[in-house]
Amino acid sequence: MDRSGPVVYRIRRDAKCSECGAPLARGNLLFLEQGRPLCLDCADLGHLEYLPRGDAALTRRSRKHSGLSAVVVEFSRARRRYERQGVLVEPEAVDRARVECLSDSELRAARREREAARRDELDTRYVAAFADEVRRSFPGCPADTAAAIAGHACRKYTGRVGRSAAARRLDPRAVFLAVQAFARHRHTGYDGLLMRGTDRADARFAVRDQLEEVLARWRESPKPDGAS
Known about the structure:
Low-confidence stretches: 157-167
Order of helices and strands: EEEEEEHEEHHHHHHHHH
Structural class: alpha+beta
Oligomer: single chain
Number of helices: 10
Strand order of the largest sheet: 5-4-1-7-8-6
């Protein structure tokens, strides 16, 4: 079994995240850090999309385009071993891989289905309000980036920070956590460190200055046109 990158487990019995206390029901995914179970958000893998096994070309290309990926395994009682169930990859990587795998007509149909499914998963008004709160707290954050942060954090059925009760109240702490996670994954070398097997705490420490630079830039109000 390919073990490059993090390994995530689909569990066969109920568990609980050792960091945030979130319940993890049978069939959920968790990451083990020094023997401690973590939900995907706490393991900094919550932004990844699950791609089940079955299409080797799509999986291979998705992993190629994904800066961070993880192998999903489940224990087989019959074979008494862990077996690969799929991978976690960045959603954009799946989109790129589909472009490479599908013909033009198939691609258009797949995109329509995919976009319809994603729209169904988003509470449009709530996502817009969350994006506005991101811009209020981080006025220097580009509008498209704020929208991407909100869309990712608030996607239904994921257990991500944007779906929490605090986030529903647009609690500043919940908004900050969503922005921080997005900036860490997209604007630092954090994912590359995880892919090389660096411990999560060490990786966070290594990119701390990079992350703070991004957040400080986003906290600043944009200058008016023509201002120096």
